Amino acid sequence: SDAYKDTLPDTIKVVNEKPSMEKQVKTGVDAENKDVYGKATDASVGDVVTWKVTAAVPSNVNKLAKYILTDNMSKALTWESVEKANLTIETNPHVDLVENTDYTLTVPAKGAEGGTWTIEFTTAGKDKLATNNVTSISVTFNTKLNSNATVNNKGNLNDAGLTYSNGFTSDDEKYPDQPEPKDGVIKNEASVYTFGMNVEKV
Question: By CB neighbour count within 10 A (0-12 exposed, 13-18 middle, 19+ buried), where does 166 fall?
Fold first, then answer.
């Protein structure tokens, strides 16, 4: 009834966004020789497998305490070296990101089976993303499928994670009693399969 109408002029303001993230694996190339990615592919032991992590960038990323991308590789995947991994970071729209200035990169040891790489954006990097209205980040890298690969229909998983602050403290006096921001984590995975065949020589 009219007695319950809201007469306050103020409105609720959303001050944070939840990003998204997807992990994919290269499945081939298209007619224009561009890489095609999907959720699963198949490969033989010794083959190089290319992976892709794509994460949305909140417009308020510069206000977040954390914005960190990670990738956890199974023991079936070998990180051969920094050079062979060829880890590449692309943004949309494109901006040049400088390692140890805009972000820090931690990678597994050379020849490690499994392991984790981490890309953590610095304050300067988050400011650069926000200033240039970057909406997404894509990271591609190579691994080698090794003899630890599971040979069945379960596949060999490679999962990625995005850690971000799910809130921030606003200086606006209209928003008192704000909860302390915590870390939100989003995970996503892709798989590579390898199969065995029985062969009889007669």
Answer: middle
Instruction: Say if CB 131 and CB 94 are below 8 A apart.
Output: no
Q: pTM higher than 0.90, yes or no?
A: no
Token representation of residue 81: 């070296």
Identify the residue with better confidence: 170 or 156. Answer: 156
Q: According to the model, what pLDDT value does residue 2 have?
A: 67
* Closest by Cα among 134, 115, 12 to 67: 134
Evaluate whether 141 touches 160 at the Cβ level (below 8 Å): no
**What kind and span of H or E run contains 117?**
strand 112-121
Is the bond leading into 93 cis (omega within 30 degrees of zero)? yes
Backbone φ and ψ for 11, nearest 5 degrees, come out as -125, 160
Q: What is the mean pLDDT of residues 149-164?
A: 85
Phi-psi region of 120 (alpha: psi -120 to 50; beta: other; left: phi over 0): beta
Rounded to the nearest 5 percent, the helix, strand and coil shares of the chain are 10, 45, 45
pLDDT-based confidence at 15, cuts 50/70/90?
low
> What DSSP designation does 39 have?
S
Q: pLDDT tens across 137-154, in order? A: 999 999 999 999 888 777
Handedness of CA 32, 34, 38, 44 (dihedral sign): positive
